[in-house]
Amino acid sequence: MKAEEWIDPLFPSAVLVSYLNELPNSLLPPDMYDKIIGIAEISNGNSGALESVLDSLPPVNAEILKLVLEHLNRVAEYSMSEEAIGEVFGPVILRPSHENLTMMARKLNAHTKVVQLLMTLRRKVDEAEAEGDQEENDELPPVPPRPSREIVRDIEKVEWYWGEIKGYSDNDILYIVTNNK
To answer: Would you say which domain of life the source belongs to (predicted)?
Structure first.
């Protein structure tokens, strides 16, 4: 049996949820909780306000969040809805401080929306990067000059030859590519 036939595509996501749940703090720090939930509650699918908040994330959190969101977008593309992903990952990506954990239960819909907004934002960034890469790829690099091919009858005359050849006769023909200037 091939690996693709027995590995559930959601298995890595389940492991990721477990890992994120065991972290002492969520990827989005607790001190940003109120601001991010507020953005999700008033947002109409516009992720611009959320983007400005994410700019203040610690670099490690930002990088891990980027990788997690790339994974979640792949999962959404192949097997789960964004809403279902938000319901599963919302509470582990964004948690209030330990003293206010009861607030999280009242704001589960906002958590789902935060994950959806984050996924949308990640897709927009990825698409913009892909367009930028495409524009860079449209310009072809310069074509290098073709090396000249000449028949060298006496290898000692070749610019880069430093050795001595023994057993070389005038009847032997060597085809050597040299860099003639």
So the answer is: Eukaryota
Stretch 121-143: mean pLDDT, rounded? 75
Nearest to 88 by CA among 14, 30, 31: 14
pLDDT, residue 98, reads: 73
Residue 181: the pLDDT is 47
- In the structure, what pLDDT confidence band is assigned to residue 177 with cuts at 50, 70 and 90? very low
Q: Residue 95's closest CA among 105, 104, 86?
A: 104
Q: What is the mean pLDDT of the chain?
A: 77
9-133 fold = Phosphatidylinositol 3-kinase; Chain A (1.10.555)
Which sign does the torsion angle of CA 108, 115, 10, 64 carry? negative
DSSP string for residues in 11-37: HHHHHHHHHHHHSSS-SB-GGGHHHHH
The Cα–Cα gap between 96 and 102 comes to 9
Per domain, the residue ranges of the chain are 9-133, 144-180
